[in-house]
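Narrative of accomplishments. A recurring question from our advisory board has been how the design workflow behaves on a single, concrete structure rather than in aggregate. To address it, we present the structure tokens for one chain from the evaluation set, followed by the sequence designed for it. No filtering or post-editing was applied between the two.
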């Protein structure tokens, strides 16, 4: 049923530099993807026949440091589209974090604008938390339904800031996180619908909020300007960029398996080298081209990026893939569409093996260019392939699965053609701005007509703004072994996820831990401590805690430590996949090698290290400042979670320093062995009667963890 009269839509995007032409994208952090999104959304909506008027409200700026365009009160873009600039706060341009004190004026001036024109919108659509606050107040004052798009959320932003090394106090002072999160809660309490890009965005971000309502959420993927991405028309291989791409390829006419991403560890592009290296058939059929940013000299890049390229080059050498893999050094953004067309013209495939992929814009661009896709089963690609039916989802940690999916397309031209055609058709249907606008209007029409209203579930706001307690577990020894008990435990963790941080601390590397978690359907924890406490990652994007890496790098000299232990009897290096930047791993035969002698040797040679033994056979050498216990205390301090509200279930001797001290700890029945037996007399350690996850649950009940959160043997819980 359509609206009886054409619709008037008010879009609100408060911050940044917004104008109808020549967008200054990237000039600062406030003028980026959101600015482009709201302008393209406004354009697309204004072109719909059922829309009478679209007004985009933003803050007016009078500042010699920016163009005079931003001081114009009304910018007319078409007969149905205007940008309305509203006075609020100082004339000059200010960052979005400084706008909060001026939002009341912004709101009042929008109301005055509506009154002066004597025309009120049918729907208000706010973008980001600041506009959400404005939109909520307008909606409640004027009785106009509110739609909201978050773009990014404060609770997730806090994780990223902490990972970057900022303290919680500095993050609050510089980014006004508490005001932002409170505004987001108000917006969720007010909005009739919240539009997200993917289902994963709902599950991993919005579910963390008190006023989250499942029925409120609606997935409408953002539109894409598909005019820049078209199918091959001939002549692509005559271009300069093809010469650049192919000059290191022995047989450049083969189909191209193309990967295009930042050189970021989370993008997991090294797995593609492994997939090729393990598959002679794939090497015979295709070339691999990895476009990973621009570089002049790898040594001039930051350390993490250097590590990515180092691993890629080592893997190429290990599998002797010279002439079969290209890593072009330079490309321009305006050449990306042509790169896609070159791969499509070759009969190739686009592949995205990222460990986590919130949306997947490159997949849409590649599909519009006529490329079938093979992509990670995490996040946005699930929606894209589900909508377009143009390729295969893969486990990004399984090189054989990646090779098999690529071969299905490369060896079956009919399947390749079907996926290519369905991709081109699917992106037009689901990811063009016109398609977005039509789905948008279908969503808001019944809301405007009041024929569809949100029925809200009861809400109990949390006591504190952030999680006030945490549950920590080893991966192998506590969570696995009893599938039914594990399911019960995971349900408990889900029910309390708004107040309780879930932390996994494991000796495994990140890729190994993720693989095991996937195998047992263990969701990504809020914090993942890997490689025996030397690496820390935060959900939802596995953002690495960079400050921790700098902290533990103190006096760490792995090469000289390796040399010192090379001839030590009873030690054998573990495989390369068990080693990491801050962890040297060995098998130890305790009948031959004495761990005390190893420690003495390393100390005599002035190596500042932490030596850990697990299960009597696995020896890890870590920086002196690194261990699971030290990593846990670092995280608890950064997240402001008191140690007496941290529950730890340990599985081996490597967990002992997490369990001692002021934490509440438990040893499940299957781990009552020598390594942890010395904790029998320690305070605040409970030895469960049940094994595995059942013992975990038993211990949580013993401590009344989600209520009083204390050792029943103690009179007062005030230990920290």
């Amino acid at each position: 049923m359509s609206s009886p009269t054409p619709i008037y839509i008010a879009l609100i995007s408060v911050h940044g530099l917004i104008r109808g032409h020549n967008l200054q994208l990237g000039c600062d952090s406030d003028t980026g993807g959101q600015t482009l999104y709201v302008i393209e959304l406004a354009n697309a909506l204004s072109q719909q026949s059922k829309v009478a008027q679209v007004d985009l409200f933003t803050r007016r700026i009078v500042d010699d440091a920016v163009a005079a365009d931003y001081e114009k009160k009304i910018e007319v873009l078409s007969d149905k589209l205007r940008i309305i600039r509203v006075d609020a706060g100082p004339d000059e341009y200010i960052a979005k974090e400084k706008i909060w004190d001026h939002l009341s004026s912004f709101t009042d001036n929008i109301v005055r604008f509506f009154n002066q024109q004597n025309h009120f919108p049918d729907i208000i659509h706010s973008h980001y938390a600041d506009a959400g606050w404005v939109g909520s107040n307008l909606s409640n004052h004027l009785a106009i339904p509110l739609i909201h798009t978050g773009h990014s959320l404060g609770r997730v932003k806090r994780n990223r800031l902490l990972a970057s090394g900022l303290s919680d106090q500095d993050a609050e002072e510089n980014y006004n996180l508490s005001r932002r999160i409170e505004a987001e809660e108000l917006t969720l309490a007010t909005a009739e619908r919240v539009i997200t890009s993917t289902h994963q965005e709902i599950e991993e971000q919005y579910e963390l909020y008190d006023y989250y309502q499942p029925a409120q959420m609606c997935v409408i993927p953002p539109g894409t300007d598909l005019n820049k991405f078209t199918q091959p028309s001939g002549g692509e291989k005559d271009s300069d960029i093809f010469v650049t791409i192919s000059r290191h390829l022995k047989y450049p006419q083969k189909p191209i398996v193309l990967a295009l991403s930042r050189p970021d560890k989370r993008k997991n592009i090294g797995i593609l080298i492994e997939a090729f290296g393990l598959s002679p058939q794939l090497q015979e059929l295709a070339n691999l081209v990895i476009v990973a940013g621009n570089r002049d000299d790898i040594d001039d890049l930051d350390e993490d990026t250097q590590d990515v390229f180092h691993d890629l080059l080592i893997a190429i050498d290990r599998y002797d893939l010279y002439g079969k893999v290209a890593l072009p050094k330079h490309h321009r953004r305006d050449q990306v569409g042509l790169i896609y067309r070159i791969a499509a013209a070759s009969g190739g495939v686009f592949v995205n093996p990222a460990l986590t992929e919130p949306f997947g814009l490159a997949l849409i661009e590649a599909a519009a260019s006529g490329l079938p896709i093979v992509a990670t089963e995490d996040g946005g690609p699930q929606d894209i392939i589900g909508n377009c039916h143009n390729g295969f989802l893969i486990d990004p940690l399984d090189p054989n699965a990646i090779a098999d999916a690529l071969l299905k397309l490369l060896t079956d031209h009919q399947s390749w053609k079907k996926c290519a055609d369905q991709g081109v058709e699917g992106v037009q249907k689901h990811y063009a701005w016109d398609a977005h606008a039509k789905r948008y209007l279908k969503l808001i029409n019944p809301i405007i007509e009041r024929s569809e209203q949100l029925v809200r579930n009861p809400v109990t706001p949390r006591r504190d703004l952030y999680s006030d307690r945490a549950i920590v577990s080893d991966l192998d020894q506590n969570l696995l072994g009893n599938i039914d008990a594990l399911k019960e435990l995971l349900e408990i963790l889900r029910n309390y996820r708004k107040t309780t941080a879930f932390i996994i601390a494991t000796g495994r590397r990140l890729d190994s831990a993720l693989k095991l978690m996937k195998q047992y359907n263990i969701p990504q924890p809020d914090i993942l401590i890997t490689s025996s406490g030397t690496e820390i990652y935060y959900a939802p994007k596995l953002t690495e805690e960079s400050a921790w890496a700098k902290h533990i790098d103190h006096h760490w000299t792995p090469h000289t430590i390796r040399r010192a232990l090379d001839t030590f009897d009873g030690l054998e290096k573990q495989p390369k996949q068990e080693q990491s930047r801050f962890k040297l791993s060995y098998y130890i035969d305790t009948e031959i090698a004495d761990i005390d002698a190893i420690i003495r040797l390393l100390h005599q040679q002035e190596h500042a290290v932490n030596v850990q033994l697990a299960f009597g056979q696995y020896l890890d050498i870590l920086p002196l400042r690194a261990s699971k216990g030290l990593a846990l205390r670092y995280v608890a301090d950064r997240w402001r979670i008191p140690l007496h509200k941290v529950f730890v279930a340990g599985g081996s001797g490597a967990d002992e320093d997490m369990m001692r001290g002021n934490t509440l700890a438990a040893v499940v029945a299957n781990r009552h062995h020598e390594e942890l037996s010395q904790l029998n007399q320690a305070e605040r350690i409970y030895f469960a009667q049940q094994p595995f996850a059942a013992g975990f649950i038993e211990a949580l009940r013993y401590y009344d963890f989600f209520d009083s959160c204390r050792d029943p043997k103690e009179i007062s819980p005030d230990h920290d």
